[in-house]
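Re-run with default settings, no changes from the original entry. Doing this only to confirm the output is reproducible before filing.
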Amino acid sequence: MEKIKAEDLKTILRGHRDWFGKVIGGKRADLAGRNLAGAKLAGATLAEAKLTGANLSGCDMTKANLASADLFAADLTDCNLEAAVLTRADLRGTKLRNARIDRADLRDASLAEGTLVTLDDEGDLRFIKWNGGEFSIGGASLQGVKLDGARIPGSFIAQTDLTGASLKGAVLTGADLSNANLTDVDLSGATLENVNLSGANLLGANLAGAKLTGANLAGAKLVGAKLYGVDLSTLDLRTVTREIAPSGELAERLAAHTKWLASRGEDGTRLTVTDQDLTATDFANLNLSVASFTRVKLVAANFAQAKLNFAEFAECDTTRVNFDHAELAGVRFVRSTLAEANLGSANLDPAEVVDRSGKGSGRLAPAKLAGADLRRANLSSANLTGATIRGTYLAQADLSEAVVAPLRSRDGVRFNT
């Protein structure tokens, strides 16, 4: 296939830009089956262009407008599509291996099966059937890409970086996502039936309402993943990582804290943790009362049903932490981020201050959430009546059935986004 000349390409692009902008004399670009390998198309206007079966390998299409473009069976291998607009584009049978698609917008793009009619070297019609197996994004970078509603059945997306991508409602039936980086990906409502997710990293991914029937999750990391409304009953989860069990020095310090509590300070050592990364650590059911965490990264950690009475979290990142049914009486969150944290049914009642012997002082200490960032946090059924919440940021937080004292304007609680 002879490569198109640079001057001819410029003329075609200029005419298409005029056509798309409804300028008299413009002409829609028809580059079907043409060889544009390595072309410089950054920022080009190719919306609704005919690019069926075109060779676009190695092209720079950064920020190009390809909305509703016909890219059926086009070769986009090694192509740079960073921040390109591909909404409603026809990408059926497209080759995207090693392509860079970071922050591209592929909402409602079509990647389903299809048939391409082309001319062979002798001028005869040739039919190319694509049944899903040829679609390949293996090794591509798709950080932050928008694929909401895209249909990508049977695709190969193994070892691909999809960090922060949005695939809400996407259809990925039978896709190979093995060893893919799906950190913070939004797959809510997606169809993931018979998908291969073995070895995939789903840290913090949103899988709420997704269909995972027949999915392979062997060795997958689901730390901090949202799984509301997902049926996992038929899946093999034996090798799936949900949380990280404390080990080494941390496990020893937790044991020393247990002794310290049991002996009322006569034996063991109070737990104090400073400047550490304890992402996704499992503290469920532990007694961590009076423990102190300062500048600790606790993203997606699990404190479900833990006792945290009088504990302190100072300048900690507790995003997406699970405090479900935890005892948080008298707890202090000082300049900590609790965005998307789960405090459902947590007990934040004031607690009586006691001395070392266990004798009550008659003085109550409230749980302190003043100034905390609780955006999109789950506070359903939580008891906040005695908690200090002045200046708390509660935008999009779930307060259904929560018990909250009447708020005053001077409390400065913010619900706006």
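Residues 244-417 form a domain with the Pectate Lyase C-like fold (CATH 2.160.20). Residues 113-135, 408-412 have pLDDT under 50 and may be disordered.
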